[in-house]
Amino acid sequence: MSPASGPGKATPRGRHRVLRLLRHNSLGLFFLIAFLLALAGQAVAGHADFNNQLVTDGMAPVSLGVYLTTSDFAVDVTENWQSEYLQFFLYIFGTVWLLQRGSPESKELDKAGTESDKDQMVGEYAKEGSPRWAAATDWRGLVYSRSLGFVMGGIFLLSWLAQSITGVAAYNEQQLRQLQAPISWGAYLSSADFWSRTLQNWQSELLAVASMAVLAIYLRQRGSPESKPVGASHGATGIEGG
């Protein structure tokens, strides 16, 4: 056995496999790492702000570990998650039927709807490499053909539920600090605090989607699949770059 391939040594083939894995998954890994860094930054900044509020209310500050288990941290996280997944849920289902002339974010103008089995390669038109459920003609095919939207919608509902539960806990903690009576979960769902937290996130996500769909008609980003090719006409619809 050569020194280069001994125990604890990475072989050229092993390094190549790792590099290929990183390259083939770089988009997902980049955003996952960025998410974790942003979450860590939010925890640190939120901890400092939370302690400032405690000191203002005449209470002792808490450690970062304790803060991470509080409803204040949980509601701040979940209220952002639910708005993001709402954005994708609406976008996935909306773009089945809704069109935007000239946008790469839209389907071509004559393809509104769920499209034919042949276009979607389902049922008898499934290919050799198609997912197994894509070839099914029973409930499995129906569910799988809408699975992305179902999962995004499910995550949205779960995170919105989590926001409401952690939100009422955080709200009631603040009520008790101010020597006011806590409220029920049902009452919190109709409160200004809940809808203020919810709608301030919804409006920003919906604006971002609308901006992307419209700006991509006229502006370009060379090499991005989210943009049309640089030389494509403004009226070209459903054409993505590469």
What does this structure look like?
The protein is mainly alpha-helical and 242 residues long. The protein has 2 domains: 14-62; 70-242, no CATH class. The chain contains 9 helices and no strands. It has helices at residues 12-24, 26-56, 64-67, 71-97, 117-120, 139-144, 147-177, 185-189, 192-218. Helix 4 packs antiparallel against helix 7 and helix 4 (71-97) crosses helix 9. The radius of gyration is 24 Å and the shape is globular. The mean pLDDT is 90.
Radius of gyration: 24 Å
Q: Helicity, in percent?
A: 55-70%
Order of helices and strands: HHHHHHHHH
Q: Provide the residue-averaged pLDDT.
A: 90
User: How much of the sequence is in beta strands?
Assistant: under 5%
Biggest beta sheet summary: none
Which geometry do the CA atoms define? globular
Low-confidence parts: none
Strand tally: 0
Q: How far apart lie the N and C ends?
A: 45 Å
| Tally of structural domains | 2
List the helices and strands and how they pair.
Elements lengths: L11 H13 L1 H31 L7 H4 L3 H27 L19 H4 L18 H6 L2 H31 L7 H5 L2 H27 L24
Main traits of this protein?
242 residues; mainly alpha; 0% strand; globular
